[in-house]
Design brief:
54% helix, single chain, 8 helices, Rossmann fold, alpha/beta, 13% strand
């Protein structure tokens, strides 16, 4: 077997027990979305791409035709992003948007392979201050983001690519659970 695929396979086996957590998140998120709440998602680099992938599945569809749900990738508005970075600094780029778009009862999903990105940590703190449920998908624990959020799934892999590939599988599991609960 190819070395990269073997690492991925081994890591997927190690996170199989996280399926229960992600499915529970899906049930909770389905209730939030069905009641008119929203999902905010953030990350940097590849994690930002995965945050946007998740929100696209919820606004569009994953498998089933259904009404669109409110899901916002916090890096998706380039004008706001650059204005916030310019005026408040990079560490506030997501936190300020959480304060603007989040309402009590909403959900913030933070993605970070390191679990230590200052702007993602600030977003999680802003969520908690605003009564927003904060979940994290990270790389190996312990890490500051997993400790800060209400719940976390930590992927025990050293390579960023492997962590991100497992995050994508977990995102699809989350989407499946949301649609199943709706």
């Amino acid at each position: 077997m190819d070395a990269h695929l073997e690492k991925l396979w081994n890591t997927l086996e190690k996170v199989d027990d996280h399926a229960v957590t992600v499915r529970a998140w899906g049930g909770k998120l389905a209730g939030v979305l069905a009641a008119g709440g929203r999902l905010l998602a953030c990350g940097n680099g590849g994690s930002a791409a995965e945050a946007q992938h998740l929100t696209a599945e919820l606004v569009g569809r994953f498998r089933d035709d259904r009404r669109p749900y409110a899901a916002i990738p916090l890096h998706g508005d380039a004008s706001s992003l650059t204005a916030i970075v310019n005026d408040y600094g990079a560490d506030e780029v997501y936190a300020r948007q959480v304060r603007a778009h989040g309402r009590p009862g909403d959900v913030l999903l933070c993605l970070s392979t390191s679990g230590a990105s200052p702007n993602v940590l600030a977003a999680a703190r802003a969520a908690q201050e605003g009564g927003i449920l904060a979940w994290a998908m990270t790389g190996p624990a312990p890490n500051p983001l997993a400790d800060l959020c209400d719940d976390a799934v930590a992927v025990p892999a050293e390579e960023t690519a492997t962590v991100q590939e497992v995050h994508l599988a977990l995102i699809h599991l989350l989407c499946d659970a949301v649609e199943g609960a709706l």
